[in-house]
Every structure is written in C-alpha cells, then in structure tokens.
C-alpha cells in the first residue's frame, strides 16, 4: 500500500444513479467520481465487473473476464450515433429509482443493444477486429458460449441438449460458429463497448487522483465458459458436471453453512503449468483496476469442499489449497498492482499465519468487532497499518442495520460506549469517524454507511436468493455537496485527504 493514510467508498456500478434502470459507465459514474474528489477520497471500490449470473450475483458469472453489458451507457451509444434517443425513451427500465429490475434489464435492454450492434458493426469493423485480436485468448470462447447459450434459451451449461457441443467436438464447434456467426459478433460487440467505456471512465477517475479497487472472485460459476472451454482446470465428473463444489461450513450467516456450488479447481493441474490461468486472469484485471481485492482469500490456504450432490455445506471437508506457490506466481504476474485479501470468516491459526506470511493487506470490519467479552482484532485500537478497515461490507448489514437490528444487546451497548455514538451526529457517522481514525493504511465505507441507511439498502444477504439482493441503487440527490463536505472534513481531520 501507499505509505500515506487514505480512504475511499464502496459503490458498485449497478448502484449508481441514472435514468435507465441500472448504473452505467457514463455520466453517473463520472459524477460519482467527482463526488469522491470533492470529498477528499482516494479510492473507489467496485464489486466484480463481470456479467451477473444465478441470483443476479456478480460472484456467479458466466465469465471471469467479460464485462457486464448492462453497464454499457446508453447515452454514450446515442452520442456515437448507434441509438436514437426516442428509441431509448420508449423503453421501460422499471419504476423504482432505488432498485434494479434485472428481469427488465434482460427483456428490454438487450434489444436496444442489438440495435446498436446492427448500426455499429460495419462502421466499427476495424476497431472490432482489433479488439478481437487483442483479446483472442478469452473472447472467442466467451462469445461462442453466449451465442450457444442464447440459442438454447439461456439454459445452464449442464442442461445443454447437444452432447457434442458440451464435449467441444471440433466438428460441432465449427458448425456452430458458422450458424451463429452474427450472434457471436453481437457478443463481441458488447465486450468492445464495455471495455471502451470502462477505459474512458478509468482514465477520468485516475485523472482526478482516485484509484479503482476491483474485486476478483476466487471461484467461477458452474454455468460458465471456463467450465465449458477449460474443464481440465476443474474437478469434474464428466464434461460440465462438477464432482465437488465450493462453500463454507456453518458461519454467522447460516447454521448449515454456505453452499456456493462453484466448481473446485484441480490445483495440481494449475501448478503444473505455473498457474498460467490465474496469472492471466490477474493481468487482465490489472488493466481495469489499480488495486485488486481477492475474494475468499483463505481458500488459497485451505478450502471447504462439498460433494456436488449434497444439499447443504454441512457434510464437507477442509482441503489444502495451493498456498505460497500461487501467491508467488501472482506477484510475478502483476507487479505494480496491489492486492487486498478478503480474509474474513473463521480462520484457524494456520490460515491466519499463511495470510500474514503473504504480507498482503487483509480486511478489518467494524461491525464484527464488538464481542463484549473479548478484545477483537477488528476493534479500532487493534487494527494495524497493513490492513484495510471497513465500517461494513456488501455481504453484511449496513452499520445502522447492524446496530439497530442484527446486533445483540450486549454488542450494541459495547458499540455505543466504545464508538461514543451520538444520535444528533448520526450513528453511522460515528462508525465512519472511528474507522477513519484507525492506524489502517486505507479506511473504507460502503456508500450506505456514509448516508446512514438501514436494512432496505443492504446489498446482499448471503445464503439467500431473490428479494433485494444486488439490487440497491443510490439516489442522485444523495450525492450532494453537503455530504461531500462532511466526509471531506472527517477525512481531513484524520489525515486521509487526497489532495
């Protein structure tokens, strides 16, 4: 990490304000970057930028490298002459300004993007070809996977009807590429637009002196191009069918553990080729982000493996991960890009020592600190320099929701006393000030905690599907001068100012 104190805000692209049902890479994103600059912040942390998958989760994506086409800004397409404003205004993106309607995104947004493709494929042919060549190592398989998936009515990979396609028989693939040529070109066009727009946004954000923290999920989804095209990297019973899947044992979120269902890596196979897939993935991410948060980092030391036929994560076992061999490979692959380890959850002494040995900064989350009978490592006075301190996370309650609902009375009493909370100041501001005051090199807060929001603004509830998971959006009027000025003053007082 930089040798200066700094801070930032967590807000996913989907949560940005804007007129088209979901946050995009356009004016709303630049406006939020301007807000961060006005507030003296140094970092903007996003969730995974990949397409959402099962349960609308960005951690269950069909690709580890593709960008989410819903984030393509429609106003930019209008400016580029690929859409007409009347076409966009005629489409419904939902009535709510507070939540994304993913059903409408699929039904109404993709047809607009197809219109943009039809208008753009000839005038952009040269640029599309150059983009295709630069990204050949992943784009060809991804576009074919999505074109096939579309032709099968978006069925998951495990239910595809053509066994020769699932097994990737060369003759079947060649025929599919011919039949689906235009659909393949459409999915390549979407990726071209996403990366062109994201590159422009990153240039704008970095130009303000703000760095982007990206999020790299440790696992890929069962219904993904990687499982289809690179099945040898996973523990599969047969093509596209995992033998074991990932999860965690019983924890604070579920008495039966969390059964994520992601395929487990064949780590021996990865090690034999020097972790080529992993280093390529990190290099790809390093072109998008300045820092990379690796999700479920402890899985590199030991991971929870569950039989694919099990209904809960209870009947699993700990298995040894790739350890320092992978860490060394990653360091060599992305020099100059910093990594943050998501090291939350129940860690045994060996896992904790492994994370410490890597020297990679871990995360300290305030809402998990208030065991009234203990001296938690997450309490502000115990947080060291080589940590990233958070008020809460996208998987947890907001601070206000925790304080007023999810906490026990003893935890609540301890937090009120320790943080010296005051209702007239705003309870969440007490949390922000405490995290900003820690010795941690970087202090972070989800935008929900800056705004003092409760349960209805929570981003995700692990071990649940549907509801409001992944749907929350911030209102444009909330990103105002008063909020920026207040955050700037807290940041100045605790010597974390950017500029």
Question: What report would you give on this structure?
Answer:
This protein is an alpha/beta fold and 499 residues long. Helices cover 40% and strands 12% of the residues. An 8-stranded parallel beta sheet has the order 11-8-3-2-1-14-13-12. A 4-stranded antiparallel beta sheet has the order 7-6-9-10, with no helix packed on it. The longest helix has 27 residues, at 181-207. The two termini are 17 Å apart.
Task: Enumerate the strands of the largest sheet in spatial order, edge to edge or round the barrel.
Answer: 11-8-3-2-1-14-13-12
Please tell me what the overall shape is: globular
How far apart lie the N and C ends? 17 Å
The helix tally amounts to 19
Rg from Cα: 23 Å
Layout: helices, strands, pairs:
Blueprint: E1 6-10, H1 27-38, E2 43-45, H2 74-79, H3 85-89, H4 102-120, H5 125-134, H6 136-151, H7 163-166, H8 170-179, H9 181-207, E3 211-216, H10 225-229, E4 236-238, E5 241-242, E6 244-248, E7 258-263, H11 267-272, H12 276-286, E8 291-294, E9 302-307, E10 316-320, H13 324-333, E11 338-341, H14 349-358, E12 362-365, E13 387-390, H15 399-406, H16 409-419, H17 427-437, E14 442-446, H18 447-450, H19 481-493
Parallel strand pairs: 1-2, 1-14, 2-3, 3-8, 8-11, 12-13, 13-14
Antiparallel strand pairs: 4-5, 6-7, 6-9, 9-10
């Amino acid at each position: 990490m930089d040798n200066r104190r700094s801070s930032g805000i967590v807000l996913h692209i989907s949560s940005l304000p804007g007129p088209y049902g979901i946050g995009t890479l356009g004016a709303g994103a630049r406006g939020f970057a301007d807000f961060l600059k006005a507030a003296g912040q140094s970092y903007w942390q996003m969730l995974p930028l990949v397409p959402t998958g099962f349960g609308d989760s960005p951690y269950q994506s069909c690709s580890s490298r593709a960008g989410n086409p819903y984030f393509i800004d429609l106003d930019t397409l209008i400016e580029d002459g690929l859409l007409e404003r009347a076409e966009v205004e005629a489409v419904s993106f939902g009535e709510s300004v507070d939540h994304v309607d993913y059903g409408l995104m699929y039904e109404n947004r993709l047809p607009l993007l197809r219109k943009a493709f039809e208008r753009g494929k000839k005038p952009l042919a040269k640029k599309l070809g150059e983009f295709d060549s630069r990204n050949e190592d992943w784009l060809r398989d991804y576009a074919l996977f999505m074109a096939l998936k579309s032709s099968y009515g978006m069925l998951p990979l495990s239910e595809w009807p053509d066994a020769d396609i699932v097994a990737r028989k060369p003759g079947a693939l060649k025929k599919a590429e011919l039949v689906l040529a235009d659909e393949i070109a459409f999915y390549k066009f979407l990726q071209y637009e996403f990366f062109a727009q994201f590159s422009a946004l990153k240039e704008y954000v970095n130009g303000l002196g703000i760095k982007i923290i990206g999020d790299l999920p440790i696992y890929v989804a069962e219904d993904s191009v990687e499982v289809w095209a690179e099945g040898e990297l996973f523990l599969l019973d047969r093509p596209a069918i995992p033998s074991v899947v990932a999860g965690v044992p019983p924890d604070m979120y579920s008495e039966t553990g969390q059964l994520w269902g992601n395929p487990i890596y064949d780590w021996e196979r990865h090690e034999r080729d020097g972790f080529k897939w992993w280093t390529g993935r990190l290099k790809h991410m390093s072109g998008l982000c300045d820092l990379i948060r690796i999700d479920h980092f402890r899985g590199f030391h030991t991971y929870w493996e569950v039989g694919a036929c099990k209904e809960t994560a209870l009947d699993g076992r700990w298995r040894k991960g790739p350890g320092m061999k992978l860490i060394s490979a990653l360091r060599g692959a992305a020099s100059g890009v910093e990594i943050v380890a998501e090291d939350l959850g129940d860690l045994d002494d060996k896992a904790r020592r492994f994370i410490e040995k890597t020297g990679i900064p871990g995360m300290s989350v305030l809402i998990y600190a208030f065991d009234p009978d203990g001296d938690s490592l997450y309490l502000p006075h115990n947080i060291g320099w080589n940590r990233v301190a958070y008020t809460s996370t996208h998987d947890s309650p907001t601070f206000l929701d925790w304080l007023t609902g999810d906490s026990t009375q003893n935890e609540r009493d301890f937090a009120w006393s320790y943080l010296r909370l005051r209702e007239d100041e705003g309870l969440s501001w007490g949390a922000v000030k405490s995290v900003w005051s820690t010795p941690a090199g970087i202090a972070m807060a989800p935008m929900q905690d800056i705004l003092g929001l409760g349960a209805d603004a929570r981003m995700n509830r692990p071990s649940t599907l549907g509801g409001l998971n992944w749907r929350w959006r911030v209102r444009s009027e909330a990103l105002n001068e008063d909020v920026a000025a207040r955050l700037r003053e807290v940041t100045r007082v605790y010597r974390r100012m950017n500029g």
